[in-house]
Each structure stands twice: as structure tokens, then as C-alpha cells.
Amino acid sequence: MVDVNNTNSDYLDQFEAALEKIGHFLYPSDSPLHNAVKYALSVGGKRIRPLICMQAAEAVCGKPSQALQAAIAVEMIHTYSLIHDDLPCMDNDDLRRGKPTTHKVFGDDIALLAGDALLTDAFSILTSKEIAQSLYGELPSLDHIILQVQLLSKAAGGSGMVYGQACDLYWTGRVGAKKADLDTIHINKTGKLLGSAAALGAAAAGGTVDIINKFKEFGELTGLAFQIKDDLLDTESGTGKSIGKDAEAGKLTYATTMSRGESEQAASYYTSKALASLASTGLQTSRLESTAHMLLERTR
Amino acid sequence: MVDVNNTNSDYLDQFEAALEKIGHFLYPSDSPLHNAVKYALSVGGKRIRPLICMQAAEAVCGKPSQALQAAIAVEMIHTYSLIHDDLPCMDNDDLRRGKPTTHKVFGDDIALLAGDALLTDAFSILTSKEIAQSLYGELPSLDHIILQVQLLSKAAGGSGMVYGQACDLYWTGRVGAKKADLDTIHINKTGKLLGSAAALGAAAAGGTVDIINKFKEFGELTGLAFQIKDDLLDTESGTGKSIGKDAEAGKLTYATTMSRGESEQAASYYTSKALASLASTGLQTSRLESTAHMLLERTR
Q1: The domain containing residue A77 runs over which residues?
Q2: A165 to chain B: nearest residue by CA?
Q3: B107-127 confidence digits (pLDDT tens)
Q4: What's the structural domain count of chain A?
Q5: Residue (of B140, B114, B115) closest to B129 by Cα position
Q6: ipTM for this model
């Protein structure tokens, strides 16, 4: 039987090595962006999106390393979103994962630009032949590369993650939201990028459009469950954020809208729907399943 | 003989119609991003990048309409850069082209997100088959689509426009800069995106890599001359910005670093180098030449 945790740490070691390697393709040490980007990328997230991306490639009978290029692009987008989200004009957070946020260390202006650079260059990394050669040795098909750009930009842009952020702002301090409004925020803000991680991994390994779409759905629903869990954990210690920060900021979250029991039930429900999407592919997807369970059961 | 001004206005009418059409592909009217993005895109810039993009397509014996998709993507990137550049944590500008800046109208948070959305979705627009069909009726080759993503992301990202912005910040209020530092700012901040406009236009119409690179060089040098001219115009009235704003902010510019005569000479020099790049293609490029002259001679 596969030891899932060991395999995950193998994936993550591969990812960190690739990120380190590609780091040299990014900004030279004399660029004013170098330190801020390096800091933001290395502040040590859980690397959930890269993990799911690599597991998705493997599930379609590819190699996890085929998804490294896509995994880096998705993690760059995730990292930019955290930098911008933490800025004073947004959530004004001083801490992220227990460490000072990028703008606290480098200033608001450089943080803004570091985010812009990561967002833009994610598309450069994703479509670079040289990086594909260097990380895996072969290119995905041209069709699959273009599909990946479409999937990532739609998941991250103004009809995806940024839309979720805008809805989040809209509802902050406002009353009258329905559960559907909350789900709109979560599915866009968190679900879509996680969905793109799964979809890009499958695309990088040459998956069919049908499989790619099912993996996307798996990731989106897993992301929704993940965000509900995140809302609940915000009310507890141990996340590296200030406890109860969401409620204090007047944010619309599961924890501030419904009972703990109802929230936990919703997280379980969306996880089971995510697993059903996976099951409908007929593929061997035990690693992706384990990741979905791990995210549901995490305590921080 | 072709009446260049009339032709330009034909191009620009085509561009505005396409932008209006694609606007419907962007954000629905109930999205919190809709108004901010529409405002920023329609605040009426000179549309220099779309014009150069369409003229470049024509110069490689394509149709100007083949470049509409790329022209919209480049203008979206340009627009996002203005929104972010005007934010309080950057240049803190209240006016742009004589009108209130996006964050003054919609708030810093929505302005930040509108910029993020435009930047991300530029890549979605650039790679969309549906939009290619709708604007021109045919797709560029897959190779040319991927090349366009590479050209645009490299021109706009942390080794291009965003790098120029970061260098601009670095030198603000600092002494000891050399003319080379100033050129590094200008070529990155302004030249590279203009270069990508010319390169993408040529790529959209199926130009060879050699021609695409020469057009890129033409656009970069034209952009450098454009920015020197912009620095000079900042010291005069009529640009819609406050007069002398750059000097007041301690910005490193041509106007604050060398004499008017030397600056004008530099702008002419870079324009003539730009024209030499064009001439080296052996193509019929009179419209691009006229645009370079028009930018050098403009009075606002």
C-alpha cells in the first residue's frame, strides 16, 4: 500500500527543487523585485495547489513532474493574490502564516509590484518551452498549452478569483447575504484556483477535455470545502492569523453566518461532491482523494 | 497617396467597436468590477498601442483586423498599469487625462482588483478561440498564439514593465543616477509594452520571428522616445496631469536630469534608431513610420 504522506513529501520536495531552479529564471538579485518575490514565494505555504496539480497529472497516467511547470504558475498566482489581499487597502493584514506580510517587510509599493510581476510572469512560465525542457524534458502539445492559459486566466481573473475578492469586499460590513452569496465568494475566491490546479495538472499530462473538466470540478468543490474549514479555523488559534480577524473585519464567512455544526456539515457535503466528480472519471485517483480528506480534517 | 490621419481614425474606430463588443465578454453589469473596468478602459487614452499593433499586422501583409484581439489584450495591460500606478501607494495621482483616476471614483480596493482583473484577463482574451472567431473569423497558428503570450508576458512582467516601475520607485528621491539608469526605466516602463504591441500585431498576422523581433525593437525605441517626450510635456500644460508633478515627486526623468535641448535630441535619436529597425525589414511600413513621427512631434 502506498504511504500517502511519504509520497506527498516526495512531490513537495520535487516542487521546491523546481521552484528554486525556476527562481533563477525570475528576477536577478539586483532587481528591486528580487527579495520581495523570493520572500513571498518562500514564506512556506502548504503548497496545496502544486500538490493537487502533480497528483492530477499522475491520475491521468502521466508523471508528476510533467505538472511542475503548471504547479509553479498556479503557486505564483496564489502568492500574488495573498500579497495583494494583505495590502492596507484590502484586508490590511500584518501577519501571514505567522510571519510579517510582504508589504510590512518591503513597503506597499514594492509589494503591489511584486504581486503584479508574479501574476504576469505566471503566464510566461506556463508557456515557456525552455522551462518545459528544463523541468520535464518534453513540451505538452500546443493545444494543451493554450488550454492551460485559458484555464488559469479564467480561474484567476475577473470572472474567477478576482471576482470572488470583489464580492467579498462588497459583502464586508453589509447585511442580508444569503448562503448562495457566501458560496459565490468561496467558489470564486478559493475554489476556482484550486480547480485550475487540478485541471492544469491533467492538461499538462495530456488528459482529455472531459477528464480535465471533471478534475476542475473536483478542485472547485474541494476549494469550497477548504474555505469553509478556513473560516472555522479563523475562530481558533494556530493558523498564524489573528484569531477572529474575519468577524472583527465584518467579513461574510461561514463561521459568522451559521453554526459550527452547519458549517462542518457543509464542508463534508462539498467534499463528498468533489469525490463524486473524481469517481465519475473511472481513474485511479486515491492520492487526490486523500488530499481532499486531509484538507477537510486539518486542524490548522 | 494614403491619408494617414484618416486611416488612423479608421483603425481606431475598428478598435473601439471591437473593444465594445469584447466588453460583453468581460464582466456582467452586476459584478462589482463592471463599472470600474469600463471606466478605466473608456477614459479615452490615445490608443497608441492598439494603433501600432494594427499597423504592424498590415505591414506584414495581413489585415489590421487580425490584430484586434492582440490590440485589446495590450490595451488591457496598459490600462491595468495606469490604474495601479495611480494608486496612493504608488504615484498617488488624482487625475489622469484630466479625469478622476479609477481609485478616486471607485475606491482603492476596487481599483486594485480592477487592475488585477484586466491584467489576468488580457491573457484570456489573447488566447480565446471564440474571440478570434468573433473579431476576425480565423485563428492565428497555435505557435503564434503561444508566441504572443510569451511576448506580452515578458514585456509586461517583472523583467519588463513592472521592472521599469520598480526601478522608477528605486530612483525616486535618490541621487547619483546615470543616463543609463534613466534609459533602463523608460525602456522597461514604456518601451517594452509598446514593443510588444508591434510584435504582437506582426505575430497575429503570421509574421516571421525575424520580422517580429525587428518590430519589437522598433516599438521599444519608439516607446523610449515617447517617454522622453512625455517627460518634457510634464513640464508644460495640456497633458491633463498637474504641471511639474514629476519634479515635485522627486522622479528621475529626462526633464529633471538634462536640458530641454539634450532631451529633444535624445528623443530624435531614438526615433531614428526605431525607424532604422523598421527599414531593415524591407517591408512597406509607412504607417508605422508616420506614427513614430507623430509621437515625436506631438504637443500633448
Answers
A1: 4-294
A2: B113
A3: 999 999 999 999 999 999 999
A4: 1
A5: B140
A6: 0.95
